[in-house]
Write a structure and sequence with these properties.
The chain is an alpha/beta fold. The protein has two domains: 179 residues, Rossmann fold (3-Layer(aba) Sandwich), CATH 3.40.50; 176 residues, Glycogen Phosphorylase B (Rossmann fold, 3-Layer(aba) Sandwich). The chain is built from 14 helices and 13 strands. A seven-stranded parallel beta sheet has the order 3-2-1-4-5-6-7, sandwiched between helices. The chain has a six-stranded parallel beta sheet with strand order 10-9-8-11-12-13, with helices on both faces. Helix 2 crosses helix 3, helix 6 packs parallel to helix 8 and helix 10 crosses helix 13.
Length: 373
């Protein structure tokens, strides 16, 4: 590989790190050098991309009381000084930030040094770190057609690229939505890496409220926390419901391919995978997400006809039972939502991101779109 590298800056969570990894793969495939900068807590690409140097700097999220905010500002300031030294050594052609406060020092230092910067926003609300950096960015790549909390002065920088999904998920786009076999409706319930208590409480209670005929047509695969799983298993067994329960599904692509409906949170990666695969969902946003961004994600998917939004206070056994009964009686509604999800989703987000990053590195700007939000 030759030429100056593209430096990727990302927070340590999977929601920030996976798009960075996807872009790294795309750039490496094109023969471009790549490096990653994150903080000490950030998860790197591990053994998957050993050719990508991982550089760690100081950073912290300004949360908590005044003392916590003051400490975070000190950490971010020290991280910016570290980033300035790294930039002087690496001389990157461009820096791409993926949100999270660990991305701030490197992007901020690049903007001060006159190095082109690109931001990627995974959610339907511009994150706080990206808001801080938006003014100095060349382009802001978005996963949703409309993004909230964007200043009017930055609206012309928005480029709709989508949010990258795993290759195994992208491959599902070639597989049609499965018609219910003999009227059986397959439901996949997840709630994050360890499940969510709300789903373990509400879903069994909702099925108890369905009549026996509706229950007989259900097939469930549900993720549950270790402390909840045996009780949930017992309740389903008492109802005669066919259910597979695990604390973690290692075969998510296959389960997603086989399901007719997913019941889940509304994180950016989840919405991207659902729409890339063309599978409808009942989305229950995590109520404590920063700036309530999961609600914005769910509203966007619902507006596209790809999903139904149920706020957690409204996600009651009676409401869920009514929704499931209606869908069991009108499977065409699910098929229509699957088609809308497929039409709205994207599987080429990584290549679009690479196009924007390389244009910035070359001193060009990708055609932008106005933000209507």
């Amino acid at each position: 590989m030759t030429g100056r590298p593209i430096l990727l800056a990302a927070g340590g969570t999977g929601g920030h790190m996976f798009p960075a990894e996807a872009l790294a793969r795309e750039l490496l495939a094109g023969g471009h050098a790549v490096a990653l900068v994150t903080d000490r807590r950030g998860k790197a690409f591990g053994d998957a991309l050993p050719e990508v140097p991982v550089l760690r700097i100081r950073a912290a999220s300004p949360s908590g009381g005044l003392l916590g905010k003051a400490r975070a500002l000190v950490e971010l300031g020290l991280g910016t000084l570290q980033a300035q030294k790294l930039l002087g050594r690496l001389r990157p052609a461009a820096v791409v930030g993926f949100g999270g406060y660990p991305s701030v020092p490197a992007v901020l230092a690049a903007q001060r040094a006159g190095i082109p910067t690109v931001l990627h926003e995974q959610n339907a609300v511009l994150g706080r770190a990206n808001r801080l950096l938006a003014g100095g960015a060349v382009s802001i790549c978005t996963a949703f057609p409309e993004v909230e909390a964007v200043r009017p002065a930055d609206a012309g920088k928005l480029v709709l690229t989508g949010n990258p999904v795993r290759p195994a998920i992208a491959a599902l786009r070639a597989r049609p939505y499965p018609a219910p076999d003999g009227g059986v409706l397959s439901i996949l319930v997840t709630g994050g890496s360890q499940g969510a208590r709300i789903f373990s409480e509400v879903v069994p209670a909702a099925l108890e409220r369905l009549d026996a005929g509706h229950r007989a047509r259900l097939r469930l695969a549900q993720q549950a926390r270790p402390e909840d799983i045996e009780e949930v298993r017992r309740r389903y067994a008492a109802l005669g419901v066919r259910a597979e329960l695990e604390t973690f599904f290692r075969d998510m692509p296959e389960r997603l391919a086989a399901c007719h409906l997913m019941v889940c949170r509304a994180g950016a990666s989840t919405v991207a995978e659902l729409t890339a695969a063309g599978r409808p969902a009942l989305l229950v946003p995590y109520p404590h997400a920063t700036d309530d961004h999961q609600t914005a994600n769910a509203r966007a998917a619902e507006a596209a006809g790809a999903a139904w939004l149920m706020q957690q206070p409204d996600f009651t056994p009676d409401a869920l039972a009514a929704r499931l009964a209606a869908l069991l009686d009108a499977p065409g509604v699910l098929a229509a939502a699957a088609g809308a999800a497929r039409g709205w989703g994207s599987i080429d987000a990584a290549s679009r991101l690479a196009e924007v990053a390389l244009a910035a590195a070359a001193g060009r700007k990708i055609e932008t779109r106005e933000n209507a939000a």
